[in-house]
Amino acid sequence: MLIVLYSFQGVPLGLFMVTVPVLFKKFLTYSEIGVIMMCTLPFSFKVLWSPFVEFYHFKSIGKRKSWIIPTQLIMCVVLTYLREHLETLLIAKEVHEVSMLLTFFVFIITCQDIAVDAWAVEMLHPCNSTYGSSAQSIGHRLGMFISTSVFISLNSIQFCQKWIYGGEANADMPDQLVAPILTLSNFLGYYIVFQLAVTVFITFFLAEIDPILEAELKEIA
């Protein structure tokens, strides 16, 4: 589960920091891409609001789930908006609006990251505490791999024609070109559905702390 939660940070960061500039480079200048890249600034300042995430929560929901559930729901809402409007905004060069949206989105990711980091410490048995950093690294890398290498490949008509549909694309005969397997819109759609499903699972079926682990920790204390 930790790997999945960390991948929820890697997928959008890889998509917006790497894939979107690659796909829309013909519409944007390097300076405009640089403005969009500034949306990662909240990661540099998350120490400022981490105490707020640590101390404020709803006991009925759980200390960590009080932040993980709403942040992931907000992420889904923002992604739904971007799914419908991101391409139009980028083509129209509404760089500052895109940058503000992504900065807010990254801020939400940092809140989720703070909560997940703390949950990893509490979720894992002390003997397995080192697995938390491994889960973080794997989740981030896996998420970024999916939203960069995998998505860019499956978004390429030439790649799909050659390696999936079994033939060479002919640029002189556009009628032979097939649609890519993934577009930005349907990729975000699949991702939103998956993230919502995981959020529902966390809400209703996943205990914040394993009762067995909790009992063991009480005995140790």
Q: What order do the helices and strands come in, and which of them pair?
A:
Layout lengths: L1 H22 L6 H8 L4 H4 L4 H6 L9 H27 L3 H29 L7 H24 L2 H8 L19 H22 L5 H10 L1
Helix and strand run:
HHHHHHHHHH
CATH topology: Growth Hormone, Chain: A
Q: Say how many strands there are.
A: 0
**Tally of helical runs:** 10
CATH architecture group name: Up-down Bundle
Structural class: mainly alpha
Q: Helix content range of the residues, please?
A: over 70%
Per CATH, the class reads Mainly Alpha
Biggest sheet descriptor: none
* Low-pLDDT segments: none
Task: Give a quick precis of the structure.
It contains ten helices and no strands.
Q: How would you describe this structure to a colleague?
A:
The protein is an all-alpha fold and 221 residues long. It has a single domain (2-46, 63-220), classed as Growth Hormone, Chain: A. It has 10 helices and no strands. It has helices at residues 2-23, 30-37, 42-45, 50-55, 65-91, 95-123, 131-154, 157-164, 184-205, 211-220. Helix 1 (2-23) packs parallel to helix 7 (131-154), helix 2 runs parallel beside helix 6 (95-123) and helix 5 (65-91) packs antiparallel against helix 6 (95-123). The model has no long low-confidence stretch (mean pLDDT 88).
Features:
single chain; mainly alpha; 72% helix; 0% strand
